[in-house]
Design brief:
By secondary structure, the protein is mainly α. Helix 1 crosses helix 2. It is elongated. It starts with a helix and ends with a helix.
Length: about 60
C-alpha cells in the first residue's frame, strides 16, 4: 500500500515540476499536506461533475 502513496506523490511532484520548471520547488510543494488535500479535493469535484454529467445524459437517453 505504501507503493501507491509513493507513486501518487512522485506523479504530483513531476506534474508540479513540469509547471513550475523547478524540481526542488515541485518537491517542496508536492510534499505539503495542504497542497495534497487541495489537489485531492479538486480531482474529487472534477470526477464527480464528469460522472454526474455522463450519468444524466445516459439516464435521459434511455
Amino acid at each position: 500500500m505504501k507503493s501507491v502513496e509513493v507513486l501518487i506523490l512522485a506523479t504530483m511532484a513531476f506534474t508540479a515540476s513540469a509547471v513550475f520548471r523547478s524540481s526542488s520547488l515541485a518537491i517542496g510543494i508536492g510534499m505539503t499536506i495542504s497542497f495534497s488535500l487541495i489537489r485531492l479535493l479538486i480531482c474529487f469535484l472534477v470526477f464527480h461533475l464528469f460522472t454526474f454529467t455522463v450519468f444524466v445524459k445516459r439516464d435521459v437517453a434511455e
